[in-house]
Amino acid sequence: MTLIRPLALSLALSIPALAAPAFAQVPASPPVAAPATPAPEDSGLEVTVSDDSEWQDLGIAITVFATDQDVPTRTNAGSTAALGRALSQVVADDLRNNGLFKPSGPAGLPQPGYDQIQAPDYPTWAVRSADMLVQGFVRGNPDGDITVGCYLYDVALKSQLIKGGWKVGPGDWRRAAHKCADMVYSRLSGESPFFDSKIAYIAETGPKDRRMKRLAIMDSDGANHRFITSGQATALTPRYSPDYRSIMYLSYLNGQPSIYVYDLDTNRQRLIARTGNPTFAPRWSPDGKWVLYSMATAGNTDIYRIPSAGGEAQRLTNSPGIDIGGSYSPDGSQIVFESDRSGSQQVYVMNADGSNQHRISFFGGRAATPEWSPRGDQIAFTHIVGNLRVAVMSPSGSGLRYLTNSWQDEAPTWAPNGRIIQFFRTAKGSGEASIWQVDLTGRNERRLPTPVGASDPAWGPIRP
User: Fold this and answer.
1) What angle do CA 397, 402, 403 make, to 5 degrees?
2) Which positions ≥6 away from 301 have C-beta within 8 Å?
3) Residue 172 and residue 29 in contact, taking contact as beta carbons nearer than 8 Å
4) Which backbone phi and psi does 293 adopt, to 5 degrees?
5) 90-138 tens-digit pLDDT
C-alpha cells in the first residue's frame, strides 16, 4: 500500500510553509501522489487566450533549483546540487516540449542562492526580458527522502503567482519536477495538468516478419522506462486502469487471444476473458467497472462488455460485418467505435448499453481507431485516404481537422488534459514504428524517445 501524508515545509531560511500534500514511494509498488497544486493567489497574471502565440510570447526563465547544503542523496541524479540542476532541466523540458512555451534556462542563466528563492532579484530578470520566473529548491532529509519547492513569479508585477512543495522518495524525484511543470503550465495557460502521467505502449524488436511485441511503460516524457512482459507472448493494445494500479492488454499466448490485467503493485496478472475466438481492443470504462472488447464469431465481429471483476459478457452490437474498438465518453454514457456495416470503416456512436447506434463520419475515405477526448468535446481517429493521418472531429461528426500529414500515423491516444495527442508512426519501407505526439494546433509535433521500436501508445490519466 502506498502511504500519502501531508507536507509542511519548515525551512530555516524563513521560506514559508508550502501547503501541498506529499507522495511517497513504497518498495516494489508504484508511487501514488496526492493532488499537489495549490490554489492560485489573487494577485498576479490572469491568462485567458485562444491563440497559442500569446503563450509563446511569454518569456519564462527557469533557474537551477538551489539547495541549503550540497549533500549526497539516494537518487540517480547525485547530490542535492546535481539534483537541483536535474530538476530544473526536467521542468524546462516539460514546458518547452509541449509546444506552448519557449522557456529559457536553466543553462546560461544566473543561479539564485538559497536565500533568493523566496526573494527574487527582479531587476536582474527584467533586463533579460523575462516575463515569468520559475525558481525552486531541493533539500535532502535525514530519512533519505527529498523535499522540493517550486515558485512562479511575475517579474513585471514583482509578485509570486503560485507555489508548491512535495516530499518524495529518492526514486520519485522526477515526479516532483513534473508536478512543478504542471503547476506552472496550469497557472499560465488555464489548462489542466498532464506532465505527471504515464504511458503504456508496445515495444517492438526483431525482423519485420517476426517482430517481438512486449508491454512497456514510461513517464510522459519517456523517462523511467520499464518492460512489463518478456515477449514470450505477443502483447497488444494496452490501457491503464483509471486508478493506475493495473494495465489491461491483449495477449496471444500459445496463439490464444486473452485479455489480461497486470497488477503493478504485485507484478501479477489475472485473466479477464479467453474466448477461444479472435479478440481485439480491450478498453476500460471511466469508472473501471467494465471492460469493452471485440470478438469475432462465425465471420461476424461485435463489441462486448464484461465486468472488470469477472462475470458474464454482454453483446452490445449485432450487425453484419466488423464492429471494433470502443472508447467511452468521459462520463461513461456513450461509446464511440468503428464499423464497416455501411460498406467501409466508419465511426459510430452508441449509448453505453448498446442502444442508439448511429454513424457520425460522413466525410469520405475510411475512419478507424476512434478515441474520445477526456474533455468530451472531440474524438480523435485515424483517417484513411491513401495515407493514414491522425484527425479530430466533434462527437457529432462535424469539424474534421487533420493534425498530422505523414505516410502512416494511427491509433491516437489523448493526454489527460485533452490538449495533446500521441500516436504511432510507421516508417515506409522498414516498417519501424515510433511514438509521436502533436498538439491540437497540429504545428507542434515531436518524437518520444524509446529504447526500441514502439507502437500502440496509451496515455494514462493524471497520476493520483
Assistant:
1) 125
2) 278, 280, 294, 295, 321, 322, 323, 324
3) no
4) -155, 165
5) 999 999 988 788 899 999 999 999 999 999 999 999 999 999 999 999 9
